[in-house]
Design brief:
There is one protein chain. By secondary structure, this protein is an alpha+beta fold. Among the domains are: about 1-30 and about 365-540, Multidrug efflux transporter AcrB transmembrane domain (Multidrug efflux transporter AcrB transmembrane fold, Up-down Bundle); about 45-130, 2-Layer Sandwich (Alpha-Beta Plaits); about 185-270, Multidrug efflux transporter AcrB TolC docking domain, DN and DC subdomains, CATH 3.30.2090.10; about 745-800, no CATH class. The strands form eight sheets. A six-stranded antiparallel sheet has the order 14-13-18-19-17-20. It has a four-stranded antiparallel sheet with strand order 2-3-1-4. The radius of gyration is 37 Å and the shape is elongated.
Length: about 800
């Protein structure tokens, strides 16, 4: 069959050439449209369930929300693992499914289980599914701040929420935009306990009046005289603070009690569980910025990071005219695209250099431009065919697929060079005959002569990479694209060597005038006899002649002392195995993202104000580091963000300045040294993508995690200290951190049941009052009816 392919190609030469040109054009078009990313798609099908429970302690969140959800989700169809995190006022449950399952079907399974668990959850709690997003989909962070302070933090946050975020969510490929920082505007009703008593109004009546009055309702249709009808609407939704202040709360003695008579109604910021700052180095070397609003853009799985980033920047340029003049919007604080461009450029540079070396080596050995050109056609054609295959299999251009091409670049010409060299040699021998055969027949015979060697050699190389397709889990998702890129490109070069290479060899080498300049010179020098001409025809270039001479003598020596050769080979194998056993092992090699992530951790229970103050100290230290171009600091978490960190944690992401001339290691070491000057904090330094990959692999944001299980928290703390002491002496360990279960300060309110019975009150009435009062931060000395609150309950500070 292979001979038939060669025969068909030589008989239909123009068709083969036309197909090659079409492949080049179509492949180049497909390459321009392929998505570009850092890694292949590593997203395991995962559904995230987020439940907001404002004001709940972590203990209640775990027992009332997280545990019922986990119980309902465990054992669902296709579920492989369930992980959770319970924090102050939030529960996050990650449901992981098997590789290859459909994410939409998985979400349907989770929704069905959530419906079953709804009856076990508190009445005011509503779990919701997070949008479908990539595990490494935090592609960029946008900073917004006022250069001169003219725009208040509340106005800045409002513009970010209702102008910038809404526009970014319309961009195809954007999954979610988290907004953090600034002040989220609220209409706040600050109840005055003394006014409540004087007006005989309870807190429950205020809450009921505010909730029921802020509504628009419909009244159906009203027929009128004539052919038309009217749509009836009652507009009750509050538009301004003044509207809310004039709201009637109850009727007393025939007169309405208005809301402003029992409470102060103001515009105020929502209680925050996170804050943020941003700093950018200007042309003079100083840092601009300060308290800012940060927008984190998440992409959908499979979306092109670079194209989404460009679309976001274009959208921000369009919005510039609709924002105040003093508001600065900077999309360059963190961009995953920078690392992608750097990684792809490095691999493309390696491909370019490899191709150039192939050209040089081929010409040095063959000393013929035409044979070099024929051989090199296998490289672009193989790459273009690989791009076409990538398009139809939904693969992207990334460091792994480009790495597969880089490994194969030197082998893409192997099949073609074997064929060309044999054709070239047989044509020279044919021209030395007294009655030469037709060149077309010589080309066919020469190609058929080496086809078995070409096919067998290619298949053996392909077999070496086939086991990579058997890898499962994350390893398979990562290395299968590399194997596919390598195998497809190698098989493409085999096809080229059986089709286009013989055609080009016939056209460019079939006549005597196509002999190389080196060959013609030798023939002229040795034209004295036919024997000399034949000898000259058999001669090779000088480099190849020297190598053949060395190989000839090396083989002769090896055959003369086989025992010595076998002993040396065995020794080399043993040494290689011993050296391989000593090599370091890691899932991925360390790579330079051009960005550093600094985690600043304070003791649990630290307030947001204290954490923000420490973040300012950290920022002051980072401003002294020359290698940083910009950095952002995020304390706590944003609303509905699946990274459920407490307000005691601050994430600082700093972007390196490529023009500083400093290495990544030097900058990281200086960051570690500078953090030692900030008292009372624990810091870890890593990189954003490495941070996300660690979280994806183990659920822990570290390269190595040691988990200790048990029921006794005191014993767990002791064991954690012992492990910390033992691990701290291990060579290479840096940024050692122990996540301890520590006490959290609380204000406990215990019911006085005897006093409740005396006053004729039910415990649920008091609990309802406490919950309602705390929403408005009401002080404890409020009266319920005629009973003093501090008589009904006993308050004390304690630890959980």
């Amino acid at each position: 069959m292979l001979n038939a392919i060669i025969r068909f190609s030589l008989r239909h030469r123009l068709l083969i050439l036309a197909l090659a040109l079409v492949t080049v054009v179509f492949g180049a078009w497909q390459i321009s449209g392929l998505p570009i990313d850092v890694f292949p798609d590593l997203d395991r099908p995962r559904v995230t369930v987020i439940t907001e429970a404002h004001g709940m302690a972590p203990e209640e969140v775990e027992s009332l929300i997280t545990f019922p959800l986990e119980t309902a989700l465990n054992g669902a169809t296709g579920v492989q693992a369930v992980r959770s995190s319970s924090g102050v006022g939030i529960s996050i449950v990650w449901v992981e499914f098997d590789w290859g399952t459909d994410i939409y079907n998985d979400r349907q399974v989770v929704n069905e289980r959530l419906a079953l668990a709804a009856e076990r959850l508190p009445d005011d709690v509503s779990p919701q599914l997070a949008p479908i997003s990539s595990i490494m989909g935090q592609i960029m962070t946008i900073g917004m701040w006022s250069d001169d302070g003219s725009t208040s933090p509340m106005q800045l946050r409002t513009q970010a929420d209702w102008i910038v975020r809404q526009r970014l969510l319309t961009i195809p490929g954007v999954s979610q935009v988290f907004v953090m920082g600034g002040e989220r505007k609220q209409f706040q009703v600050l109840v005055d306990p003394d006014r409540l008593l004087s007006q005989d109004v309870t807190l429950a009546e205020v809450l009921d009046a505010v909730g029921k009055s802020n509504l628009n309702v419909t009244g159906g249709y009203l027929d009128r005289q004539g052919p038309g009808e009217l749509l009836v609407r009652s507009i009750g939704r509050i538009q301004t603070v003044e509207d809310l202040a004039q709201l009637p709360v109850k009727m007393r003695a025939g007169r309405p009690v208005l809301l402003h008579q029992v409470a102060h109604v103001v515009e105020g910021p929502q209680v925050k569980r996170g804050d943020s700052t941003a700093w950018v180095r200007n042309a003079s070397g100083e840092f601009d910025g300060g308290p800012s609003v940060l927008l984190t853009v998440n992409k959908q799985p499979g979306a092109d990071t670079r194209s989404i980033t460009a679309a976001v920047e274009e959208a921000l340029d369009e919005l510039a005219g609709s924002l105040p003049d003093d508001v600065r919007v900077d999309p360059s604080l963190y961009q995953q695209r920078d690392f992608i461009d750097l990684a792809v450029d490095n691999v493309v540079e390696a491909l370019r250099d490899g191709s150039l070396l192939v050209v040089i080596v081929l010409f040095v050995f063959l000393l013929n431009f035409r044979t070099t050109f024929i051989t090199l056609t296998a490289i672009p054609l193989s790459v273009f065919i690989t791009a076409i295959v990538f398009h139809y299999f939904g693969l992207s251009i990334n460091t792994m697929t480009l790495g597969g091409l880089a490994v194969a670049i030197g082998e893409l010409v192997d099949d073609a060079i074997v064929d060309v060299e044999n054709v070239y040699r047989r044509l020279r021998e044919n021209r030395a005959k007294e009655a030469p055969d037709p060149p077309l027949r010589v080309v066919y015979r020469a190609s058929a002569e080496v086809r078995n060697s070409i096919v067998y050699g290619t298949l053996i190389v392909v077999l070496v990479f086939l086991p990579l397709f058997g890898l499962a889990g994350m390893e398979g998702r990562l290395f299968r694209p590399l194997a596919m890129a390598y195998i497809v490109s190698i098989l493409s070069s085999l096809v080229v060597s059986l089709t286009l290479t013989p055609v080009l060899a016939y056209w460019l080498l079939g006549s005597r005038r196509h002999e190389s300049l080196w060959r013609r010179l030798l023939n002229r020098i040795r034209r004295s006899s036919d024997d000399d001409a034949r000898a000259a025809a058999e001669r090779e270039g000088p480099v190849l002649a020297v190598l053949k001479w060395m190989a000839k003598h090396t083989i002769r020596i090896s055959l003369g002392a086989p025992a010595v050769v076998l002993l040396l080979a065995t020794t080399a194998v043993v040494v290689a195995v011993m050296a391989a056993a000593q090599l370091e092992r890691d899932f991925l090699p360390p790579f330079d993202e051009g960005v550093a992530q600094l985690n600043v951790i304070l003791p649990p229970g630290t307030s947001l104000a204290t954490s923000s103050g420490v973040a300012e100290q950290v920022a002051d230290q980072l401003k002294e580091i020359e290698g940083l171009r910009s950095f952002i600091a995020k304390t706590g978490r944003a609303e509905l963000d699946e990274h459920a960190v407490g307000v005691n944690m601050t994430e600082v992401v700093g972007t390196f300045d490529p023009g500083s001339g400093r290495s990544r290691e030097d900058t990281l070491e200086e960051i570690r040294d500078s953090m030692a000057k900030v008292p009372g904090v624990v810091t870890t330094v890593e990189q954003p993508l490495a941070h996300l990959i660690s979280h994806m692999l183990s659920g822990v944001q570290a390269q190595v995690a040691i988990k200790i299980y048990g029921d006794d928290l005191d014993e767990l703390r002791r064991k954690a200290k012992e492990v910390e002491a033992a691990v701290s002496h291990v060579a290479g360990v840096k940024d050692l951190f122990v996540e301890r279960q520590v006490s959290i300060e609380q204000l406990r309110i215990e019911l006085n049941r005897d006093e409740l019975a005396l006053q004729g009150l039910l415990p649920e009435e008091v609990n309802e009052f406490i919950e309602t009062a705390m929403q408005g931060k009401v002080v404890s000395n409020v009266l319920i009816g005629q009973s003093s609150f501090d008589l009904l309950v006993r308050m004390q500070e304690s630890s959980l």
